[in-house]
Design brief:
By secondary structure, the chain is mainly α. The chain has 3 helices and no strands. The N and C termini lie far apart (96 Å).
């Protein structure tokens, strides 16, 4: 790198004048040894009642009054909407299609594995089952 290059790191020999730093006389120092300002708090000194996040939630809706369970069930059944027979048939068709696709995939993988591994291990199969002597 040439000596007069602006990227040179030799600043002591630079031709430019030295920069003047503006330093004020108002410097404050704090004593870090003052223990009266520092309050040490034990992390395990409190209880869950002191932490708002650990308080039990209050429900916004008032709780239903206690009715007979079958009456509550009847009220809930009035809110439920059942799907139309067309929606049921469409969903059932999708399920059957996915089951058939999964079964086909497993069959292809099984057949391929039998063919490939059968060729690889054919010598082992022959050694494990020697020909029976003819009588």
């Amino acid at each position: 790198m040439p000596d007069n290059c602006p990227g040179a790191l030799d600043l002591a020999e630079a031709d430019a004048a030295a920069a003047k730093a503006q330093v004020s006389a108002y410097v404050t120092v704090t004593d870090a040894s003052d223990e009266e300002d520092v309050k040490v708090q034990d992390a395990f000194a409190g209880s869950e009642k002191d932490v708002p996040e650990l308080q039990p939630e209050t429900p916004e809706k008032p709780k239903k009054e206690d009715k007979f369970i079958l009456l509550q069930l009847a009220e809930d059944l009035q809110v439920v909407t059942l799907p139309t027979p067309g929606e049921v048939a469409q969903t059932f068709g999708i399920v059957l299609l996915l089951v058939a696709a999964y079964t086909g995939f497993v069959a292809v993988v099984d057949f391929s594995a039998q063919e490939v591994l059968g060729q690889v291990f054919s010598d082992f199969y022959k050694a494990a089952r020697p020909e029976a002597p003819s009588l």
